[in-house]
Amino acid sequence: MEITISLSDSIERNEVLELYKTNNWSAANKPQSLLLALNNSHSLVTAREATKLVGIGNAISDNYLVVYYPHMLVHPKHQRKGIGTKMMKALQSKYSGFHQQMLTADSGAIEFYKSLGFEKAGNTESMWVYEGNEH
Predict the structure, then answer these.
(1) What is the C-alpha to C-alpha distance for residues 92 and 53, in angstroms, rounded to an integer?
(2) Is 40 helix (H, G, I), strand (E, B) or coil?
(3) What is the CATH number of the domain that holds 15?
(4) Which stretches in the chain have pLDDT values below 50?
């Protein structure tokens, strides 16, 4: 079945939680905050097989210089089929003229993001105050 990528799709609580839980993302443990965060993102991209949500990603931006991509998930049964690439390319095309496109990649995703043109930012290190323990 064909996968549809959309930059302006609406999302439902249950489908989002199912996708996050399937990918073992801790944000699923804060469903109200997760939905508010996604719905208030600068951009939201989804991937659907018919009506079933199989991928989601978002962008936070100042709308001029900087964009940050905090979430990019594809259902495990649909990974390695080009869905994540299509979703990232949709987001990157929207922000192509920006001074910085940034993200934090888990070790298993580093090669994926490198294939899309991302690289380590000089001598910088990722830093955060994080409420969680899975990293």
Answers:
(1) 21
(2) coil
(3) 3.40.630.30
(4) none
